Structures are given as structure tokens and as C-alpha cells.
Amino acid sequence: MFGYYLDLALRSLKRNKVLTALMVLAIALGIGACMTTFTVLHVLSGDPIPSKSARLFYPQLDPQDMDGYREGGEPPDQVTWIDGMNLLKAKRGARQALMTGGAVPIQPAKADIDPFYSDSRYTTSNFFAMFDAPFLYGHGWSDADDESKSRVVVITRTLNDKLFGDKDSTGQTIRLQDADFRVIGVLDTWRPNPHFYDLNTGNYTELEEVFVPLSTSRDLKMPRNGSMDCWGKGGADSDHLENAECVWMQFWVELADASKAAEYKAFVENYSKEQKTLGRFQRPVNVKLRNVNEWLDYQKVVPSDVRLQSWLALGFLIVCLVNTIGLMLAKFLRKSGELGVRRALGASKGEVFKQLLIEACIIGMAGGICGLGLAFLGLWLVRQQPADYASLAHLDLSMLAITFVLALVSSLLAGLLPAWRACQITPALQLKSQ
Amino acid sequence: MEIFPILSTLRRHKTTALLVILEIALTCAIVCNAVFLVTQRIERINMPSGVAEQELIQVAMADIGKTTDEHARSLQDLAALRAIPGVKEVASVNQVPFGRSSNNSGIKIDPKQKLSTLNATNYYGVNVAQTLGVQLVAGRLLQESDYVTMDDAKKAFISGKTEGLPHIVVITQDMAERMWPGQSALGKQLWMGSDMPLQVVGVVKNLVRPSIWKDAEAQYSMMIPIGVDDGQYIIRTSPADRERVRDAALETLKKNNPHRIVWKKELWTDVRAKYFQGDRAMTGLLIGVCVALLVVTALGIVGLGSFWVAQRRRQIGVRRALGATRGHILRYFQTENFLLATIGIVIGMALAYGINVFLMSKYELPRLPGFYLPIGAVALWLIGQAAVLGPAMRAAAVPPVVATRSV
């Protein structure tokens, strides 16, 4: 029976090509728009480190003076050097890292490459293990390197390719800001999205190319990037940031399991109380401890334009579906005569209903396939945009499956009402009026 | 009029009529809001900058190692740049309008205030106003003799000696109006934080901030007499000379000190274009969606209209046989569409308002101005009429003889 219905449906669709094309086009446009925007939203709101996101925490505390104090306010988004160092040295988590972003001038040994700036990260030793950074060659540095301000560096695969032509460069020397550094590790391709550990340098920015021990970067006064907030007499004097009343660093802690969070929060609260009795902190103790996903939510990482686009596309899909319902209704009711004959010859209402739904499904499939094409086109267009997330806009398998399910379900939904209405005809009346 | 017969016919085709109404309502609601968003973006893209946009070049360099004689080097750079033929003005600055990276301060009217009155951005650099070409509306611009160096200012600030600090400032009209509404700002005092009093000596029309958090605060800028030697230069020249001067400037600066990296070399019109790239992309997308929506709606009306005409051929034939002219039939279908569109538009307005309230709560958008609703209504009426015209003409072409034919 199914084959027969399929045949009937195809014949019927062929009979009025313009109407069929209109329905397919409407579904395709709606699906295409939705899949494009949903894919972008899906990519941008992903978990950057799923295996650990519930165990990595970003403590916030409030070291500011009473100037501009508002009750119930949030603590600053970053920490001062002093607090960062104190929390780091307390070693209350399984791992912890203190860091900031920067940019270093690289002076290649090859004469044919001009000196250039690369984005860099100045961090402490735990960074790589904590964030599961994959090494292609070598390894990260040790606590001892942090202590001794070692001139060691970890670079990314892309920089390695550029400077050493994809050979293992560990043990080689590169020149950064007029100083020689020994390469001890090369990171494999890795791009956590969002760039969760430091949102100040861009929400979806690419991985930094150079990783240098924090102490070394301060020793050489390497230029830093990102935001800095100061209060009181804290000036943005880059030489004395260690003592400045400014927040400019990111501190992350890894806990053995999420249940240790309350314990860690109590520790930071205690620390804040201590600092308050010492007179350094003035505001009431205000500590927040968010894990990766909570932090991304709080920072409203997904651009509001992208959310807005998704709503818009959904609205568009609904209009397209209403349109399709109308057209299908027109089409099915037009066939009243034919359906009347089938009913009179003994087909039950259910059979007629099935036949019409198959026709709706075919339209849905065709719409889905065209919609998929449009989604590819849409995503290509998104990738041409200037936003820093543009290059991430690719369809993955799950979104591909969702496209088809969405196309089928929406065309079935659109087909339900017209098919049901078409089943309601009285065969006798139809036959008589012929 | 034919309204009553039309209504009674529509009552017999409730589902189809409802679908048309629903489609028009949804389209109306979405298009009204989308067009509103588009105008908001366009307004933003065309935001005034207050500077001589067609005449500016930005060049930024960074030293590779640490240097000690930055001030002397910067004076050397400036002199060399000034010597390039076609260069009108040059300044070494800390930031540029629409440049994204910025230096900002909380500003108070009274040092005892707990919270700042507003947050303004700080433009530093000798000759910055003259080079940018800002328009003075009251008082005077800063002169070279007003300036202190950044190092001296920092030392004075940290040691609490106010003599070494700058004590005058030039602000924008928007900022003056926000701080002292309806009064002249000239001679008034403002505080940067709680420690640094500055007297307003000049007011300029506009000077946009490097990065804008809130569009309403885009013009909250100050020029403070502090000299900087960060290696960021702005050069003013005539529009036709810009590319030549930019290339000459790069060469000159490289020759002056080869041990540094150029990280910016842009005509200022490109700086502006880049700043609003995202807004422009969004505007294009919104317009695209609006057009697609209207086309889909129009096609839907054409499709349903054709179906109706086919279904009512007999009825039309009877009317024609009874003496209705082609014009009558045409008018019948157009009136029918007008009625459906009107109901759809009324529902669409309410929906548009609802969507706006939702967007206002989620995306901090302003309220939808009332005049968008009639514009949306007229657009949909026109589209409905245009879409139904084809099927209606076909209906009008039905010969009266159809009525007598048995099918």
C-alpha cells in the first residue's frame, strides 16, 4: 500500500508543479534559516571543556575600597596580583593557575620573516594539565621554572610550523622581545570555545601562540593585553602592577570534585576576612565561586545578536509553516473528487489520511534537502562575517540529523490539519456533484 | 457594499481564511520589529564622530625591547612626520575614536560623591584636538603649554602633589549637558575619581569614544592635557593624499627606528567601517529576512487565491450570468483580501507589541515607536492587494457561460 501511496503522492505533486515548488520553497527557507542560526547558537553556547567544566572554578573576591560601593554588587571579574599569588600559593585546590593575556614580539632567526607580534599567555605551571591542553611535542614547565623565572616557552603547532617548518622544535631557541627562550613544548591543535579562561581578550578568540611563565613575563616586562580596573591611587603603570590596586589577572582552580566547592568558597571567604582585618580590603566580604558554565552564563558570552537571530529564524519558520498549511489545504481540498471516489470504493478515512500524510512527508523531505543546502549557504555567509566566532560556524552531524527531523516533523505538522480536513468529505456528496 | 456576502462566504471557509489571517499577522509582527531593529542599527552606524573623518590616518608602532628615551624618540617621530609633504597636523595619542581599546575614568561633580556621575573616556596627547579636527562650541582647546608628561602626572598623582597634575579639561557637549543640564559648563569643576579636580575650559560638539558600551553615552569624552609617547600617531592630511601620506609615514617611522613592529596603519574611514562591520552584517540579515517574509506571505496569498478562484468558478459564472461585471468580480476578491489583511494586521499589531515587550526585557531594546504600526499595515495591505491581483483577474475572466455548463 505504501508504494501505491507514494506513487499517488508523486503524481499529485507533479500535477501542480508551481504549488508544489512553493510549498517546498517555503519549508526550505524556514528550515534553512533556522538551521543556520541554531547551528551558530549551538556552536557558540557549547561547553569548552566538557570533561572538567563542573570541576574548574573561577573564584571572585572584592578587594576594592568603599568608593563606589553598592550593596549586593558583584565582585570584580579579575583578581589583583597580590590576591592571585596568595590563592595560588595556598594550593587549596587540586590544581590552580594564575594568568593574563599579552602579546610578544617574535624575532625569527630566518631573515626572510619580519619580526611580528603574537598573542601570548603568561601563566603558571598547572595551566596545561588543568585545561587538558594537548601536547604534540615536549611538555609544560614546572613549579621550579615559575620560581626561577626560567626563559622557557611553549608554542602552538601553527607557530611551530611557521618558525621551524613542522619539525619537533623542543630544545631549540626562539627570540622573544630581545631575549632568548628555550622551546620546551609544542601544543597540538586546540581551540577551546568559548575562550573561557580569559574572556577579556575575546570571547571566541583563537588560542594564544606563545605560553610563557608568568614570572618570566613580569621579569621581562612583556606587554599585556586584556582589561584592567583600578581604584584609589592604583594607576595603570605597567612596571608596578604587582603592587597596584588594580584587578587584571585571571585565577582558576581545579577541585577534586564539585562537592569541594563549598569548602573552597569558605576558604576564599576566610581569606577575604583576613585581608579585611589587615586593612587591605574595605568592603564587606563578597565571594563568588562559579564553575566554567556558570561563568560563561554570567559573562553573557553568547552574543545577543546571535540569540536574536535565532528567534527571528524561528518566527520565520512559523510563518513558512502557516503558509505551507494553507497551500496544502488548498491542494488537498482540490482533490476532493478523487478522494471521494477512493472513499466510495472502500478506502477508510484512515487510509485516505495516510495517503495524504505521505504526500506531506515527501514535501517535507524535499523541503528538508533544499533547506540543508540553504543552511550550508547560510553558514558560509556567516563565515564571511567579521565576528571572531565566524570561523566556527560549521554544521556537525547532530545538527544535520536535527535538520531532517525538523523538516519532517514540521511538514507532518503542516500536513495534519489539511489531511484531516480532506478526510471529512462525504463521498456521496462528492460523487453526486460530479 | 459587498462586505456581507463576502463575510458569509468566508464563514464557510473558516480554516483557509484563518490561515491567511494568521500568516499576515505573524508577518506584520515580525516585519515591524525587524524594521525597527534595522533603523536602530542604521542610526548607530551613522553615529557622529565629531572628527575630520576623511582626512585622518592612524599609525601605531610598538617597540620590540624596553626603551628609556621614549619621549625624545616620539618628538623625533613627530618632527619627521610633520616634514612629510601634505601633512597638516600630527599628534601622538593614547587612543583613537572607534579604536576599541580605551582608557576611561569615573567622573564626579563633587569629590564626596559615593558613586560616579558618569564614566568618560580620556584622550591624551599634545595637539590631539587640532589633529582630530574636533569642533569647538565654547571656550578654548588645549594648547601645548597646558600639557604635562604622563610620567610627571603619574609621579604627582602617586605622591599626592596636585601641582604636577593637569588641572584643566575639554569635554564634549553631551557630557556637559549630562553633568550640568541647561547651564554653561565653562569654568565648572569636575573630579576624576575623588582626587583629581579639573576645570572645564572648553566644550566641543562631538568626540566619540573608542569603544561604546551604551549608545547614549557614546559622546562622553574628555581631553586632558597629558602628553603620551606610546607610539600611536594620528596624522591629518587632505582626503586625496591619505594613501600616499600613510605609506610615506610608515617609511619615515621605520627609518627613524627600525627596531619596532607596525601594528596599525589605517585610513580612519576604514577604522570606522571596521567598527560597525557587525552592525552592518546584522542590518543586511534583518533586511533579508523581511524581504523573504514578505515574499513568502505574498506567494502564500497567490496560492490560496488561485485555489479559491478555482473552487468558485461556478459561483463566479452565476454572478456574471446574473449581470455582475468583470470589475465587480475583481473588486470582490480584492475586498475579500482587504478584509482578511485588516483582521491580520490588527492581530499583528498586538503581536508586534508583544514581541517588542519581550525583546525589551531580554535585549534592552527601546519601545517600538507607534508610527511603525501604520507603516507595517500599509505595506501588508499593498502586498496583499498585489498578490491577490493575479488570481482576481483570472476570476474576472471567467465567462458567464460557465454557469450554464454542467461539469
UniProtKB/TrEMBL annotation, chain A:
Residues 20-266 form the MacB-like periplasmic core domain. One of its GO terms (molecular function) is transmembrane transporter activity. Residues 313-427 form the ABC3 transporter permease C-terminal domain. Keywords: Cell membrane, Membrane, Transmembrane, Transmembrane helix. It comes from Dyella soli. This is FtsX-like permease family protein. The keyword Transferase does not apply. Pfam families: FtsX, MacB_PCD. It is found in: Cell membrane. InterPro entries: ABC3_permease_C, MacB_PCD, Macrolide_Exporter_MacB. The chain crosses the membrane at residues 21-44, 311-333, 356-380, 400-420. GO terms for cellular component: plasma membrane. Its main location: membrane. It is a multi-pass membrane protein. It comes from the Bacteria.
UniProtKB/TrEMBL annotation, chain B:
The keyword Transmembrane applies. Residues 46-247 form the MacB-like periplasmic core domain. Residues 291-399 form the ABC3 transporter permease C-terminal domain. It is a multi-pass membrane protein. It comes from Dyella soli. PANTHER family: ABC TRANSPORTER PERMEASE YTRF, MEMBRANE COMPONENT OF TRANSPORTER-RELATED. The keyword Lipoprotein does not apply. InterPro entries: ABC3_permease_C, MacB_PCD, Macrolide_Exporter_MacB. The chain crosses the membrane at residues 16-38, 285-310, 338-359, 371-390. This is FtsX-like permease family protein. It comes from the Bacteria. One of its GO terms (molecular function) is transmembrane transporter activity. It is found in: Cell membrane. Belongs to the ABC-4 integral membrane protein family. Pfam families: FtsX, MacB_PCD. Keywords: Cell membrane, Membrane, Transmembrane, Transmembrane helix. GO terms for cellular component: plasma membrane.
